[in-house]
Amino acid sequence: MSMKKRGAVYSVVALMLCVAVYLNWSYNRQEEEGYQSVAEFNNAKMLGEAALVDGAAGESADVSGDYFAEARLSRQQARDEAVSILNRTIDNEQLGEEAAAEASAAIQVMAQSAMQESRIENMIMAKGYEDCVVFVNDSGVNVIVSRQENGLQDSDIARITEIVMDESGVDASRIKIVETAS
To answer: Which of 78, 102, 137, 140 supports an S-S bond with 174, CB 3.0-4.6 Å?
Structure first.
């Protein structure tokens, strides 16, 4: 395959991935706007209304749990869209075998990243953290954990870093750990 053709294939794949990310962002933005109006409606107080949740009146829902669920859903939607585009690249006979092999390799990398993210999330939650979401990419690993009562301590950061290093093989300097704001 000539260098021009290879460059064209890379450009098409990159363009398709950018379009997928934009569409995912646009879709999630529309959903968030809908969630805000539904949340405003659900949080509106009516005279004489009382809510009983788990035996406590007026208790609010866990907002951080929603963040983690939405982050996982957004991550999965973006990944699904990228895989769809790569599958179309594989099926396109005009692009050649080399492009199909590169697209197949990209799918395998995404699958490996998804498995690493899942294992890391499960290990972190098994260590007693309420919830987390992990993003594995070329530049490193980003970990977002639920807010702790006393905030993340050095021991928490060391424990999470060790889990990420063991499961992903990524150097500690490429691991970013963030605690949710609320």
So the answer is: 140
Closest by alpha carbon to 103, among 79, 81, 83? 83
User: CA 56, 59, 65: angle at the middle one, nearest 5?
Assistant: 125
Tokens found for residue 78: 């973006």
| Residue 10 scores a pLDDT above 70 | no
3-state secondary structure at position 57: strand
Rounded distance between C-alpha atoms, residue 109 and residue 111, angstroms = 5
DSSP classification of residue 146: P
* Secondary structure (DSSP) of 35-90: HHHHHHHHH---TT---EETTEETPPP-HHHHHHHHHHHHHHHHHHHHHHHHHHHH
Contacts of 167 (CB under 8 A, 6+ apart): 116, 119, 120, 123
Which amino acid, 44? A
